[in-house]
Fold this protein.
Amino acid sequence: MTFLGRAILNSLAYLGQLGGLLGETCGLMARGRLRPRLAGQQVVNIGFGSQAVVIVTGAFTGAVFTAQTYFQATRLDMETGIGGLVSIAMCRELAPVLVGLMVTGRVGAAMAAEIGTMKVTEQVDALRAMGVSPTGYLVVPRFVAIMISMPLLIAEAIVFGIVASWTIAVPFYGISDAWFMSHLQNYTELEDIAFGMIKGFVFGILICLVACHQGLVAKDGAVGVGRATTRSVVIASLALLVCNFFLTIVLTKFFPFGEG
């Protein structure tokens, strides 16, 4: 019981620290301290730099999901509906979650390592000594950049997933192109796309907060930076999966299936 109580208290304290960082970040943004040049650089690092990872993730997720769906659908003579099924799955779940996890591993780790290195080499303290807010200089540009980049990366993954699905389903498995496209258009609504975009927006905020916080509290030199990087990936990944469940429950109330 003592261990459980300590774990709960530590978790609440950690959430409080993340909430404080979020509040400070939003406060600086509300006062117009966005640092557009730094934010633009981070958009390039986060968005453009993640292109290869997102394209491969989206394409092969769509391809393997199509293959697995085809194997099961042929038993029920429902293979013509693969287009709509893959599209909805990519929009609502597969693209947001998998892209979120990949970005956590690539971008979240880089954020934690970069800021953590600045922390243990006292560069963060130097910013404070010069009257510059570390949150405003280090966190806000990354926060703005990832909120812009994540929905776009997820949209890209959805597109490549659907293209890969068509490539597998039509030329390879011989499904009618007309049926594939008809089900794709009939069963995919703007609400499904909005579902994934909202998830991407929230996941981006979560990844940035966890990674930046771990970097800002890093200590004990290079070992501490490595520990902070590992923690940022693990915590952000687990938080993303948990958050995805609750987002799915809440968003389904606003964007139910089949009601465009």
Remarks:
- DSSP finds nine helices and no strands in the chain.
